[in-house]
Amino acid sequence: MTTRTAHHAARALADPATYTDESALHAGLARLRAEAPVSWVDVPDYRPFWVISRHQDVMAIERANMTFTNWPRPVLFTEAADQLSEAGIIRTLIHMDDPQHRVVRAIAADWFGPKEMRAMRARIDELAHRFVDTMAAAGPECDFVREVAVNYPLYVILSLLGLPESDFPRMLTLTQELFGGDDAELQRGEALEDQTAALLDMFEYFNALTRARREHPTGDLASAIANARIDGEPLSDVETASYYAIIATAGHDTTSATIAGGLHALLQHPDQRERLRDDPGLLPSATEEMIRWVTPVKAFMRTAIVDTTVRGVPVAAGESLLLSYPSANRDEEIFVDPFRFDVGRSPNKHLAFGFGVHFCLGAALARLEVSSFFRELLPRLDAIEATGSAEYIATTFVGGLKHLPVRYSMRPRPGYPG
Questions:
Q1: Using alpha carbons only, what angle is made at residue 7 by residues 4 and 9, rounded to the nearest 5 degrees?
Q2: CA-CA distance, 394 to 179, in Å (whole number)?
Q3: What is the pLDDT of residues 109-123, one digit of tens each?
Q4: Is the dihedral of CA 258, 152, 75, 13 positive or negative?
Q5: Lowest CB count within 10 Å: 11, 15, 252, 342, which one?
Q6: CA distance linking residue 151 with residue 246, whole number of Å
Q7: Which of 335, 130, 154, 168 is nearest to 257 (CA)?
Q8: Distance in angstroms (rounded) separating the CA atoms of residues 317 and 297
């Protein structure tokens, strides 16, 4: 039997608390890349898995989607949660492989394409104005995450779905309960049953939405999903609700984490903030650097369906692999000075949106939102500083900052009274 290399930094990735300390996390991942880039993890409550920490290997595995599949274990959850997932309680795009994945993904693909993004730009800019105004009105101090960053992307994605603004607070609570299930502050409860209840509450809402959109289509993304047909048949209730859920949650939490983490990076690197403010032409590269720096999706899982190797290490059929995106996005083999935040970084081959057939459906929308927000915010900031410690969500899947207290002074929007 081949000896499996284990490393304490790899074991730590099964602990949600690991992601609450960015400095320790990245120090551990750097050791992992240097000492055991393919490392075995076998810890209580989780099925064993390999940790893949090098950019080149993550890309190769994502590219080989017929060798390494999403199903049956797309996300690092406990063994009990894995069993619920395998029972079919939820069935999103991240749970699917080709050819089913390709067909189901196509239902919403055009809604995130160039034409729809051009149509959405006015709404995105309007909401950026609105939430920068909200920040100005809340001043001179606020918790940037709670009062601004979590709301702006939520309004964007739920507007695309076509949901009424009166429902947005409820959706915010549900999305945070789902992705904050490992965080004592955000979770509905500690038990798996509590987290499942949050998912079922969301599904109850979306099942009612499906019925409404099938009776009276309204030309929005929710209507497109509700009325989609594959081989002449509509999606099942689980498939339809799952589709809404992945768009509403992933389309919100990842972007809010990037905006909050992006501002935090600009606070920590005032020279880069001044550089970006003085040269708005850097916004596209700054957006990519914020996405790399934050890397909101911490990991996806893949399962080998045949015996294979990764970096010369034997991986048996049926074994799972964790693709560590924060590690890949600080890989010294790919990025020059990877621990330097550089708003002009080029090239920037980050993997925060994944790679290959599962490349993030909403990547273009996320880029638009981040760019629009900072295009509105930076010219209006006279001064800004942190007034307390930044706090991170405990997670093994999607996360970032949950608190960022700041003090600031802002000027009114040009053309508006102060």
A1: 145
A2: 9
A3: 999 999 999 999 999
A4: positive
A5: 15
A6: 17
A7: 154
A8: 26
CA separation for the pair 195, 245 (Å, rounded): 14
Tens of pLDDT, residue by residue over 196-223, are 888 899 899 999 999 999 999 999 999 9
Residue 5 DSSP label: P
Check: CB of residue 300 under 8 Å from CB of residue 396: no
* Strand-strand pairing, 308-310 and 49-52: unpaired
Q: Using alpha carbons only, give the angle 131, 137, 140 rounded to the nearest 5 degrees.
A: 115
Strand partners, 299: 324
Q: Which H helix or E strand runs over 129?
A: helix 114-138
Instruction: Give the pTM.
Output: 0.95
Domains of the chain: residue spans and CATH:
8-410 (1.10.630.10)
| β-strand partners of 405 | 143
* CB 223, CB 266: distance < 8 Å: no
Beta strand 405-410 with 141-143 is: antiparallel
Residue 397's CB is within 10 A of a number of other CB atoms, namely: 22
Other residues' Cβ atoms within 10 Å of the Cβ of residue 11: 18
| CA 249/CA 134 separation, integer angstroms | 23
Residue with tokens 């997670």: 395
